[in-house]
């Protein structure tokens, strides 16, 4: 079911999430809600706190991004054999990051209309459970790794604006105030509770 996406200045977006018990009855519906809400908002990732739940769970769809990016640009965002993923990450833990860093622009459904260039590691290793509650330890690179790190930030209470300097935040004061009050044009439902 499509849920409203919590936007800037909601308490849930700045708190650290809890690991979700695998036997929690809401888990299957939470997974469906994350996919439905993300797809409705035409996003590429969404975390549980963005729909008001304090759990360490998120979904990633870098497959659509791979297909949308022109072939000439793919090598900037994806390794040779990488064609993106569509995956649920339950109780993920970051294990390793590469020293190779790269910059790219990021946006966030909880901060509509804000785009920021962020430097992130090219390669990560992560431990997580998938939708079938199977444990995985896997490496991801490029844009997929960036999306995972962005959503992992959400589960730790870190927002895109935390990657911005003080002067940039001051410059964006009125835009952030508009987002906080729900005065933004988006094609998806938002929550400003």
Automatic annotation (TrEMBL):
Binding residue positions for Fe cation: 108, 150, 154
Catalytic residue positions: 151
SUPFAM superfamilies: Peptide deformylase
Cofactor remark from the record: Binds 1 Fe(2+) ion.
Superkingdom field: Bacteria
Reactions catalysed: N-terminal N-formyl-L-methionyl-[peptide] + H2O = N-terminal L-methionyl-[peptide] + formate
Required cofactor(s): Fe(2+)
Keywords linked to the UniProt accession: Hydrolase, Iron, Metal-binding, Protein biosynthesis
Iron found in the keyword field: yes
The protein's Enzyme Commission number: 3.5.1.88
Enzyme class: hydrolase
Entry-linked Pfam families: Pep_deformylase
Keyword hit for Zinc-finger: no
Record-linked InterPro entries: Peptide_deformylase, Peptide_deformylase_sf
Similarity field: Belongs to the polypeptide deformylase family.
Function summary: Removes the formyl group from the N-terminal Met of newly synthesized proteins. Requires at least a dipeptide for an efficient rate of reaction. N-terminal L-methionine is a prerequisite for activity but the enzyme has broad specificity at other positions.
Listed name of the protein: Peptide deformylase
Organism annotation: Flectobacillus longus
Gene (UniProt): def
